[in-house]
Amino acid sequence: MKVPPRLQSLVEEGLIDTVVRQLMSGKEAMVYVVRCGDETRCAKIYKEANNRSFRQAVDYTENRKVKNSRQARAMAKGTKFGRESQEAAWQSAEVDALYRLAAAGVRVPQPFNFADGVLLMELVTDAHGDAAPRLNDVSFTAAQARQHHATLIGEVVRMLCAGVVHGDLSEFNILLAHSGEQGSEDFPVIIDLPQAVDAAGNNHAQRMLLRDVANLRDFFGQFAPELQKTQFGPEIWSLYQSGLLGIDTPLRGRYERTPGTVDLGSVMREIDDARDEDAARRLRMAQA
Predict the structure, then answer these.
(1) Which tens digits make up the pLDDT trace of 34-62?
(2) 14-256: CATH architecture
(3) Angle at 228 between CA 147 and CA 223, to 5 degrees
(4) Residue 269, number of CB atoms within 10 A of its CB
(5) By CB atoms within 10 Å of each CB, which of 18, 163, 176, 190 scores lowest?
(6) pLDDT tens digits, residue range 117-132?
(7) Taken in order 5, 11, 16, 17, is the CA torsion positive or negative?
(8) Where are the domains of the chain?
(9) 166 has a pLDDT exceeding 50
(10) Where are the alpha helices (DSSP H) in the chain?
(11) Catalytic positions, written as ranges
């Protein structure tokens, strides 16, 4: 196929040999299957801010650090250079998160290179060598749902122990990959991390983690209804705040609030619902 303009420089530099096809177009990026020597990889092209539909980006970029003090000042002032620096920080956040999480043992795609706003990384595949499906494209038995849910709760814990909250985790950004070994079980791989936040430095981290875990519960609860009654999110965050969370910490899926404790998750959900209702009301008024 014709080489997209954003990939042309990588072809000229020899980082990409051939662009095979477009794999997907999402809210913050477009992904292409490419050939690099003898290997098939994927190239993720980040969309510019004015073309991105990712909602509430300010929640994700809060307290996101840059090493250059000039960039930090410009970002704070909102200058053109500051906006460009903020955009670069947004794009490089996924690369940083991928390396950080891979080192922590989280199953994420292996990154290979990042240049000109394009991330070259592993193409996660199924048993036939094709691009692995997202969870939302797969049906599960109750036993499979319980197994994958338990695996992903463990991955959320590993991420949190590494200081990272995904921030947008759902069945739409988890792939079901194959290990390549005959008879082995498929396993989930977490993708799409430019919105990942620092667990300790972002005021929205708790709300995002609770939402991530709730998304897993709701999806797998379709196949194993007993999962709908679990409360892993509040349990995990409570252990994390208390300094008691480790990758091997046993979880029960239950959470009992102490008297006087505010259920922040419920409060934030009510705020989100009110915000959505107000936005819908304003839209109706504008269309009237």
Answers:
(1) 999 999 999 999 887 655 444 445 554 55
(2) Orthogonal Bundle (1.10)
(3) 50
(4) 15
(5) 18
(6) 899 999 999 998 899 9
(7) positive
(8) 14-256
(9) yes
(10) 5-12, 57-61, 69-77, 80-103, 142-161, 205-220, 232-241, 264-287
(11) 168, 192
